[in-house]
Amino acid sequence: CEPTGISKCRSETADDVENERHIMLLWRTTFLASTHFNLLVSQTGPFSTISQRSYSMELNNSRDSVTQGDELVNFYGNGTASAYADMMDEEVKKTIPDLKLLLTSLPDEGLILDTCVGSGHMLRWIHENHGSQKTRQLQGIDISSEMLEQARTRLPGSMANLVLGNMLDVSSQVDESCAAVMNTFALHHATAKECKTAIQEWTRILKPGGCLYVGAWEGKGDIDYGDYSPGFKAVLHQQTDIIDWMTDSGLTIVQSRTHMEEEMGMNSFYVIGKKPTK
Fold it and tell me: What's the pTM?
């Protein structure tokens, strides 16, 4: 489609626009992508790979709107969960190098907890590809019961314990009970304050020598959805901030990498932090 201004563009038909908009929302976890909006992302910090390129995403600085709630739960219901799961068949491949590194860095005992398990692709990959990990307990949390149903198709029976819950609340987890905690492409559903607190809590439940794995979109400010209003706010975070919050929580950064998302015109980033042994 041809741009008609910031955050807006023309399309062949209204139905095509609406259909593709929702598909991209599913695919990129609530991000409206290039065929609907010209996105401007503010890239900063030493890890940025596209600081010399100009993209468009209209941002603002309000950070006190609701990022969690019924609207978010409802968004991931109905047909969203199924379509998201289909697209994750390819998307999960981007995390495999990190998962391989993660699994070679863990203590011998402890739970692997995915705090935003979604369709279950990552836990399934861990179960299938590392024989030594098959005896390790796997657990996934998700805010959507429909997403958990998708995860159960990939993690049937006792393969993993799948629980309805919120990634921001792991208060039921015992201190130092997890070998790994994972959170990928869900932190845009949390404010900066919520992210910092969540990282502190995820660190609390890590065993000494355990690892926290975070994947997120690179940027700063709130996402402007243009004419589409999902009923909740999404917030971009800078990679340097995530790293600071992890180190402030006592983690040592094992790996930090950036990936250019060509069709999105922005960076994603992946960070692994390790809790020191006593």
Answer: 0.77
